[in-house]
Amino acid sequence: MRLFNANSKVNEKEAIEVIKENSILLDDTGGLDALFDKIGDARIVMLGEASHGTHEYYTWRSHITKRLITEKNFEFIAVEGDWPDCYNINKFIKGQGDPGTQIQQVLGSFDRWPTWMWANWEVAALSNWLHQYNNNQQKKIGFYGLDVYSLWESLESIRKYLEKNEPEALTKATEIFRCFEPYKGDETSYAYASRIVPELCEDKVLELLQEIQNRLPQYQLKDEQIFSTEQNAVIAVNAEKYYRAMIKSNEDSWNIRDSHMQETLERLLDFHGKDSKAIVWAHNTHVGDSSATDMADEGTYNIGELARKAFPGETFLVGFGSYNGSVIAGDSWGAKMQSILVPDARQGSWEYFLHKASPQNKLLLMDQLKDSFFGEKRIGHRAIGVVYRPEYERYGNYVPSVLPDRYDAFTYIDKTQALHPLHIHPNAITVPETYPFGV
């Protein structure tokens, strides 16, 4: 846990004046024009969030996403979600699902805790807009998952594809299922077993990936289902690695996870073509460049840092935060979701200074703050995960950050409210909370 300490060397009056001088008030979404000017010709725009359960983060990101698609020709959205479930959204918005299917039915597939991250009315509204938008487009917008958790679901997707299209390759897939069968779809059991037999099914999933890559045609025809099958094989390899590392080291498992997100993002960009553009939705802790935080001290990195290195000058990072309000979260891993009050931000934190400058929504373009002390000091920046106990905020929930280096822009919503989840009961709770806040 990170102990929060207000930085006594920060002059509060000076901090407030710097924010006042450099902030753009967001009375409505029209105030974001400066953001789109600053984004310019960026190829990758990452939109963060300070929690996984806040209504305004989803709605403001939706607005920005729509404008990026309609005004700057962005081609797909990649989110901090599982590939198989998100691929169902992808098919829905492209009109490839069963006739008459409603988005609520599609979101019902998100049954891994925390279900509310993607099974919510805010995502439903965006998905319906994308479906309608795609109806009038020859080149349709895509929606994909970047995460690594879906080991069993990805293996099942591979089995179904091979059964229908490549029955000769089923032998390898069957061997994989036999290897994992003793763990009955329980990632945690597999992870603990790997402490005794470290390699376990590692060789099997690598053989499966090679088999699929050898058999599946290359993408001359841009067959998305073929791409998806190979992606599920990539997930199986990286997920197996992730779950083995999870028991041994939070830092190693975090790095495997974000490296997989970056690998998936690059695969999607390659699949969509050399001029393709991507919108990424993920928690601030993934989006905000980790080299500008104390994560770097612990040897961890994230997709924001990796993307900046891989696509220098083409990656634009947008952080989000708020002062107080409410959020959907659980008070422990796997607990019942609930609306939890978010207290006022701690004194001396980034959100505290933003609120003291004025209790209004605002946008900051970070290059304007680099020459101030904000460009030199690590200041606490709140992060709320799917597990949240506000009474313990003094012991954590604040990531020491040099904000002008961590983001290219920051969107501040002074008071927020909990998002509106679809009440889907999780099938199983198998993945323990991960570093640093279950994000």
Automatic annotation (TrEMBL):
Pfam families: Erythro_esteras. InterPro entries: Emycin_Estase, Hydrolase/PRTase-associated, UCP036794_erythomycin. It comes from the Bacteria. One of its GO terms (biological process) is response to antibiotic. SUPFAM superfamilies: EreA/ChaN-like. This is Protein-L-isoaspartate O-methyltransferase. It comes from Segetibacter aerophilus. The lineage of its organism: Bacteria, Pseudomonadati, Bacteroidota, Chitinophagia, Chitinophagales.
